[in-house]
Amino acid sequence: MKRRGLSSTQSDKLFEQIYDYLLERIRRGEWKEHEKLPSVRALALEFNVHRLTVFKAYQLLKQNQKVYVKDKSGYYVQPGLGLSLETRNDPIISAYVQESHLSEIHQVQATYQFSKALLDPNLLPNLYFSEYVKKVFDLYPKVLGTYSTTQGDQELREALCQYFHKHFHFYLTADELLVSAGSQEAIDLVARALINPRDVVFLERPTYSPAIDVFRRQGAQIVPIEIDEHGYDLDQVEQFMQLHKPRLFYLNPTYQNPTGYTVPAEQRKRLVELAAQYHCLLVEDDPYRDMYFGEKPPLPLFSYDTSGAVIYIRSFSKYIAPGLSIAIIACRPSIMKVLIKAKSLSDSGTPLLNQKIFLHYFFSERMQQHLEKLRIALSIRRDLMEEEFSVTDWEWVSPQGGFTLWMKLPQTVPMDALLSKSMEHSITFVPGLICDPLRESKSWIRVCFSYLNEQQLREGARKLISVCNMLQQ
Ligand SMILES: Cc1ncc(COP(=O)(O)O)c(C=O)c1O
């Protein structure tokens, strides 16, 4: 497949980001009714963009009656747009909100759930779980009567320090690890602790869609970084770092959700150097690392970090024990301090019982053997799905790990109709649009092969193809 660099459409869409940004500031009351807004020239200088880009943002604001123009004087805030602004009537904001709501398709009950990036529960050694639960109650009889510390169980953090050191050459102390209730919570903590409104955040394009929502909610200005099967265009990343001075870059460089792409080792090293040079934190989300189908993936970015530029998030909930919801954040003490503070505002620590069960289960011989079986089962499911979809003219890059196929459908396929018709046939998938910070990837879909069994995968894939064919006739 072709490499996707910065497309002209992408730079065109900068004006939408400026639109969002200006509207957000108006909504927050930073400019009052009838107050004059900054000139096109001043904003172009502030954002380092062409004046025409700012002009287009203003034109759209005018068209949507958010601002009005006084001849030869400039743009003024339209009255009645304060914090109570009803976003439903706003074409751009409402489009975004509705697309985010599409992630609610996870809630839809369907026979063929291709939307869930979860493991088939039948692939876990369910029968053995109770042994570990009993062991935990024997070892820690007061476990149910105790809170964890906010940072997480000391015994677990020490065991994980050794594990990270042995497998990934992390040099850490237990004080540099925090146990969170899954990586979703970890992303949220990072955003709440480190991002202020208007901070620039780099997100991969496409990316894990809840991350877009979390950083947007925080008021971040989002700059997309294209990812493809070869990784990033690092010259462009450097240029963007110089230009936008980002606070952080959230990335999922190993069997990325949704694409399955993996950033090569040499890029990881350079990216860490760039981050240190431009004072940009790298937030490395790494939930699929153990799910490789051939060679092991390159080391995490965190392994290359000597300056404290990387915050490493490692969820164990995807394939160890989803029901325990355990993830780890590794980072240097100055950042750890603010993360602990942020976590203490939302809970009193990740449940201790979950942490202790995870500790004994994860480090058991049985779990490590089980991972090998999981990899084989998942690679068989990937092969099977690729075989089913090989009869179509859909395009994808075969993932070497992870849970997802990221497929490009012909442009003639009406995506909204495909989603609704598929749901009628009890099939769900994730439309690529919700994974795209620019909300443009209309022809892409994410299909997970991890959740259904082999027979359901085959049936579901065939049904999905036939729904799609029906729509194209
Ligand atoms: C890249 C990525 N980050 C975070 C998460 C959330 O993981 P958790 O279940 O640990 O909260 C997911 C789940 O799909 C994911 O794919």
TrEMBL record:
One of its GO terms (molecular function) is transaminase activity. SMART domains: HTH_GNTR (SM00345). Residues 12-80 form the HTH gntR-type domain. Pfam families: Aminotran_1_2, GntR. The keyword Transferase applies. Its cofactor is pyridoxal 5'-phosphate. Keywords: Aminotransferase, DNA-binding, Pyridoxal phosphate, Transcription, Transcription regulation, Transferase. In the C-terminal section; belongs to the class-I pyridoxal-phosphate-dependent aminotransferase family. This is PLP-dependent aminotransferase family protein. It comes from Brevibacillus choshinensis.
